[in-house]
């Protein structure tokens, strides 16, 4: 169906008519609510993926289990399909979030001389674009390094996946990079999870406090889970 | 003598802009003997009387009822729409809320969709066009029915009433970092979606109002909740969740 054609109402506007910021092809004729909905849905799918990713990665704490799991995963004929699906979801999330962010910036061209908040906005909620872009860069480097084995953090000559992971994370730069990346994910999700429920319309006064708690818990839990692997690698000295 | 007897000494930094095309700038004014019992708008009246006596242009600002129910007044005081007090319009903000010697920075509401007309006055007709797009009931509902003739669940009546408390002042847009009008639009959508009279146009209304909101150049909500905190009528962001639900129910039904 097509959306009703809105009139910018320039005749009624006393001052100069404004440009219509939603006219660009990137908006693909989608309303702001539809774009937000797609960002929320893809975000929800990505959170689901992160839990599965963490569960698989934590197997590294059990000697031998991680490489077995990785071999089984790579043997699956469904893996390329899953990877393409995940990539598509990620692209939708990032692209639409950036399109919305651009429109949001255009909507407020001039900031106030005195910056003040009412205390409701949090650092996480105000910096979703910054933490999101940090995660984007992290994911690109992470895939180049882990999937395509780009020798970024030293060049360990190792055989197995678990050795590659542990030696990387025992490298000071590798540990720092991965710790920073998962912390950015945690901060992003501490607002993102609650936010997606609100955007999908699954929120009310009754659920609000519980959902904000859940959001912070999910952010903290995922960041802590991935950090545990970094700490484990550092303690093991990469072996 | 205390400052209460002498009145407050204030330093005002006021945004002055001759018209929509003017770049605008801050100008400083010092105001003495401001009664702590004055409302913020009465303080501005006092400033304007002083400016007129001195042969200067008075500061233009919007106002009407001055009792917190019309939604006409509003500017940003020290970075906060309608000032720092909770659940208060600018006209209901009193000077006793400020310490003697306070420096107050007064700016118009900032948003692409709310162009500045003059000084602290912005053009909020974008809100009127959102209402014109669907914030009404056009079916004949006859004359006023007897009380309780049309049954409305108590919970829905309360929620509709809370949403209907929106006075359309624009503080939500002003306080939002994205200048999003979703709190305003969702309050109007919720108010009518919760009542029997609003059912006939329910789906068409939410689609049309969201489309108009986008066309006006408002940003999208990133759920920072600053709007709810700044709203003089304390409209809940629960309404935004409801509007999102309504929007997708409407889209699904039309598929």
Provide the number of structural domains of chain A: 1
Radius of gyration of chain B: 21 Å
Q: What CATH architecture label of chain A applies?
A: Up-down Bundle
Number of strands of chain A: 0
Tell me the strand percentage band of chain B. Answer: 5-15%
What is the terminal separation of chain B in angstroms? 73 Å
Shape of chain B: elongated
Number of domains of chain B: 2
The CATH class of the largest domain in chain B turns out to be Mainly Alpha
Radius of gyration of chain A: 21 Å
How can the largest sheet of chain B be summarized? 5 strands, mixed
Distance between the termini of chain A: 59 Å
CATH superfamily of chain A: Fumarate reductase/succinate dehydrogenase, transmembrane subunit
**Overall pLDDT level of chain B:** 95
Mean pLDDT of chain A: 88
Question: Helix/strand/pairing class of chain A, anyone?
Answer: mainly alpha
Q: List the total number of helices of chain A.
A: 8
Helix content of chain B: 25-40%
- The helix/strand series of chain B, from N terminus to C terminus, equals HEEHEEEEEHHHHHHH
Q: Care to count the β-strands of chain B? A: 7
List the main descriptive attributes of the protein structure presented here.
heterodimer; A: 239 residues; mainly alpha; disordered N terminus; B: 255 residues; alpha+beta; Ubiquitin-like (UB roll); Fumarate Reductase Iron-sulfur Protein, Chain B, domain 2; 2 domains; 5-stranded mixed β-sheet; two-stranded antiparallel ribbon; 9 helices; elongated
């Amino acid at each position: 169906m097509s959306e009703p054609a809105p009139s910018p109402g320039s005749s009624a506007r006393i001052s100069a008519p404004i440009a219509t910021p939603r006219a660009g092809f990137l908006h693909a004729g989608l309303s702001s609510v539809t774009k937000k909905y797609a960002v929320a849905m893809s975000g929800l799918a990505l959170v689901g993926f992160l839990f599965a990713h963490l569960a698989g990665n934590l197997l590294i704490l059990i000697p031998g289990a991680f490489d077995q799991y990785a071999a089984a995963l790579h043997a699956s004929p469904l893996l390329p399909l899953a990877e393409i699906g995940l990539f598509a979801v990620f692209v939708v999330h990032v692209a639409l979030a950036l399109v919305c962010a651009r429109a949001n910036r255009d909507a407020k061209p001039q900031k106030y001389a005195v910056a003040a908040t009412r205390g409701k906005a949090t650092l996480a909620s105000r910096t979703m674009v910054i933490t999101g872009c940090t995660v984007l860069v992290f994911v690109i480097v992470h895939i180049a390094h882990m999937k395509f084995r780009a020798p970024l953090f030293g060049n360990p000559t190792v055989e197995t996946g678990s050795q590659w992971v542990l030696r990387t994370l025992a490298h000071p730069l590798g540990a720092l990079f991965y710790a920073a990346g998962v912390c950015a994910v945690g901060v992003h999700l501490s607002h993102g999870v609650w936010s997606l429920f609100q955007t999908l319309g699954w929120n009310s006064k009754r659920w609000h406090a519980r959902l904000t708690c859940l959001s912070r818990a999910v952010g903290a839990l995922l960041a802590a889970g991935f950090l545990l692997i970094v700490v484990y690698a550092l303690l093991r000295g990469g072996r | 003598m205390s400052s209460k007897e002498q009145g407050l000494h204030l330093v005002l930094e006021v945004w002055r802009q001759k018209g929509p095309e003017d770049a605008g700038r801050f100008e400083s004014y010092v105001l003495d003997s401001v009664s702590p019992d004055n409302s913020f708008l009465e303080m501005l009246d006092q400033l304007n009387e002083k400016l007129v006596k001195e042969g200067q242009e008075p500061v233009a600002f919007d106002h009407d009822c001055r009792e917190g129910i019309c939604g006409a007044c509003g500017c940003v005081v020290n970075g906060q729409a309608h000032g720092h007090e909770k659940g208060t319009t600018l006209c209901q903000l009193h000077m006793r809320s400020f310490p003697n010697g306070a420096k107050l920075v007064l700016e118009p509401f900032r948003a692409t969709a709310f162009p500045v007309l003059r000084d602290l006055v912005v053009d909020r007709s974008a809100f009127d066009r959102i209402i014109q797009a669907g914030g009404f009931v056009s079916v004949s509902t006859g004359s006023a029915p007897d009380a309780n003739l049309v049954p409305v669940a108590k919970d829905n009546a309360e929620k509709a009433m809370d949403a209907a408390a929106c006075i359309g002042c624009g503080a939500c847009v002003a306080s939002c970092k994205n200048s999003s009008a979703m709190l305003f639009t969702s309050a109007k959508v919720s108010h009518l979606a919760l009542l029997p009279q609003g059912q006939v146009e329910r789906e068409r209304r939410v689609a049309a109002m969201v489309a108009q909101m986008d066309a006006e150049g408002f940003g999208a909500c990133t759920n920072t909740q600053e709007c709810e905190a700044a709203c003089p009528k304390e409209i809940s962001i629960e309404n935004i969740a409801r509007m999102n639900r309504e929007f997708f129910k409407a889209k699904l039904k039309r598929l």
